[in-house]
Structures are given as C-alpha cells and as structure tokens.
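Renewal narrative, Specific Aim 1. Our central claim is that a sequence can be written position by position from structural information alone. The example that follows is taken directly from our test logs and has not been curated for this report. It begins with the structure tokens describing the chain, in the order in which they were read.
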C-alpha cells in the first residue's frame, strides 16, 4: 500500500475536503497513473451526497480521469511509463460472463461492474474504490484507455463519461448520414450528443426549453433548434425523426418526444430523472416505436469513441477549476451554471 491524497465527502451532509488514504501497490496486471485532470459529473454529486442510496463513506468521487502512467506491473503489455492514459466509470468486472466477453463490461452479469469510486473493491476485499479527485490511481490494465495525443487533455476528461454515454447509443443504433436525429437537452451530455451526432453525418436537431441556447447549439453542431415549450414548433416535428437521444435528468413528458419519431424510430434515454417517466402505451404501439435505455459503454467501445473524437477533433467544452473550488462547482452544476463540464486541474491538489 502507498499513501495518497485527495478530496472526499466524509458523510452525505458534509462538503468535500482534503483526505489522506492508501491505495494498493500495483500488481502484475496493474497500472499506476498520476492524475492530471478529472472531470466533474453530476453522478459525483449524487454519490457524494448519498442521493443514490450509497451509505459507505468517505467517498472520493471522480470517474473522468486523464493522467500519465508512472508504473506498470510485470504482466502489463499495452502501456509503459510515460504514456497518457484514461480511466472512465469502471475499474473491474467479472471478465467471464457473456456481456464481459463481448466487451460490454458495463452490463456485467456476475455482480455488475466495479465503479471507479464508491464500489466494493474486488482487488482489496473489505474496502471501497476511491476515484479521481486524487493524486494517483491504480487500475487493472484491462480498464485503462489510451488517450489521443492530439487533443486538449483537460477537455478529453469528460469524454470518459459524457462522451461515451452519448456515443454508445448513437453507435449502437447506427446513426449516420441520411438520418434525422434529435438531442433533448443542452448540458454536459447533450452538448456531446450534438458534436458526435453531427460528426457521424446525421441531420441534428436540438430540443430545448431555453431559446437563449439556440446560438450555442448551432455552434456545437445542431442544424436546427426546436423550443420544446412551443406547442406549434413541437407539432411541426411530429413523425420526423429516426432517432432521439434524451439527455434530460429532470422530470418531463416523454410522450411529447415519442410523438416525434417515425414508424420504427427509437428514443434512447440516457438522462436519469429521479421519478419514473410515464409512458403512454399508445405512444409506442401504433407507430411501432422503440423506447430504450443505454449505460455508458464497454472498454473497447470507449477506446473507439476516443479514437473517433481524435479523428474529428472533438472534445468537451469545459471550465477548468482548482480542487479547492469543488464545492462551489457542485452548486453551479446543480443550477446549470457551467458550459458544459467542470474539469479539475489536479496539479492544484499539491498546491
């Protein structure tokens, strides 16, 4: 074990503060990474505040990690010291169930995947994982990603959650040229959905409740913007879309968006509202529409996403902060006061 420092929530009611802890020494298949940048995801806030039912504290959040390899185990062949590396939402899974064998570790059928933070740590039984709001991390090489050299490193970090969360369903449902695609909501997820769908060649429409977001949406890749509070604008889009990606985590009328799909069109939910969405059966029965969900992406697909973003020069729009600004950043995320992701400069942890 070796000493490490980070920021943690000691309870669901306390703000994040400096925290000292120990990480395991790298084993034969492990990689030790010094963390350069870590993105701030709304999931971090939910977990740090115990809003998703977790009861084990302290919590060191952070699952959008970009850093540099400083040590590798004797069995590691894919990385060497000095390489850039990334770690996303997972650091382990069973590796033998059908989903894991297909490179879909996020759907691991034998105990589920091990989250980068606040998950029981299979490598150190009895302990929980600590995430990227920290100086360094040790991860099995099978869950480490190669970070492209040509992209701004700080802006790559959110790709490891927001990027793959939107890329995976767009890729799985084969979005491409000749298709009309809708993105619902312009936030951390939605702005990545716009960029990626545009790069895939689709005709992209943003649906938003905020007219003042129209100009930014077009900068990010939207060909059209529809104000979803305007009934006439929504009615004009009925039965027009092949695919809609819903990135909204607030409660909303999902049937209003299902009505925009063509026959056999698909709406995929990636935003996670706190209350169940009420789906009218007739919204999907008569036009044979599909309502689906999607969870991040497996390791092979996440690497594919990073390579796609490198090819198309896609990164997240970010605001870089120091670690001691994290509690203020959480409040700003809740009030949607960021365009569009915070990223922590982890060099500030040592300052």
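The sequence written for that structure reads:
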């Amino acid at each position: 074990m070796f000493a490490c420092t980070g920021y943690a929530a000691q309870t669901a009611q306390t703000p994040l503060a400096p925290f000292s802890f120990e990480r395991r020494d790298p084993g034969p298949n492990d990689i030790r990474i010094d963390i350069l940048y870590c993105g701030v995801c709304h999931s971090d806030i939910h977990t740090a505040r115990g809003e998703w039912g977790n009861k084990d504290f302290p919590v060191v959040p952070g699952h959008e990690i970009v850093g540099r390899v400083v040590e590798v185990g004797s069995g590691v062949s894919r990385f060497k010291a000095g390489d850039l590396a990334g770690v996303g939402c997972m650091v382990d899974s069973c590796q033998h169930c059908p989903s894991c064998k297909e490179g879909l570790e996020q759907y691991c059928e034998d105990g589920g995947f091990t989250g980068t933070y606040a998950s029981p740590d299979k490598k150190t039984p009895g302990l929980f994982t600590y995430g990227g709001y920290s100086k360094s991390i040790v991860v099995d090489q099978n869950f480490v990603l190669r970070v492209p050299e040509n992209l701004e490193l700080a802006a790559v970090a959110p790709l490891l959650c927001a990027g793959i969360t939107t890329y995976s369903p767009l890729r799985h449902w084969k979005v491409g040229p000749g298709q009309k695609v809708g993105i619902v909501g312009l936030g951390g997820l939605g702005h990545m959905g716009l960029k990626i769908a545009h790069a895939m060649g689709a005709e992209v429409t943003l649906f938003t409740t905020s007219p003042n977001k129209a100009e930014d949406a077009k900068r990010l890749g939207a060909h059209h913007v529809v104000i979803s509070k305007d009934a006439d604008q929504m009615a004009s889009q009925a039965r027009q879309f092949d695919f809609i990606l819903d990135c909204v985590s607030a409660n909303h009328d999902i049937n209003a968006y299902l009505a925009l799909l063509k026959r056999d069109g698909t709406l995929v939910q990636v935003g996670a509202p706190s209350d169940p969405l009420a789906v009218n059966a007739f919204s999907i029965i008569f036009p044979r529409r599909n309502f689906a969900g999607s969870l991040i992406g497996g390791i092979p697909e996440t690497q594919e996403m990073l390579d796609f973003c490198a090819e198309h020069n896609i990164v997240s729009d970010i605001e870089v902060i120091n670690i001691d600004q994290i509690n203020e950043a959480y409040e700003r995320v809740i009030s949607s006061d960021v365009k569009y992701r915070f990223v922590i400069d982890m060099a500030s942890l040592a300052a």
